[in-house]
Write a structure and sequence with these properties.
The protein has a single domain, classed as Ubiquitin-like (UB roll) (Roll), CATH 3.10.20. It is 27% helix and 25% strand. The protein contains 3 helices and 5 strands. It is globular, with a radius of gyration of 12 Å. The model has no long low-confidence stretch (mean pLDDT 88).
Amino acid sequence: MFNVKLFAILAEQIGRSEVELSIATPITAATVKAALQAQFPQTAAVLADCLVAINQTFVSEEHFAPDEVSEIALIPPVSGG
């Protein structure tokens, strides 16, 4: 199990800023998104555009996380004006 930090609209949709997820290994951005969507289907539309950071480094959909994962975060796109 991994603690995953959520920001902006994701945190709003789920009602908290951190969730515990069972994530398949090897961990990639795609497996993190799939685990969140499986537990919280209402996030599907937002997840497509989210960035995933593992150990404070953005990773691609296929990039394998290092063996030691201390932090996972999902960052949705933000807009401002």
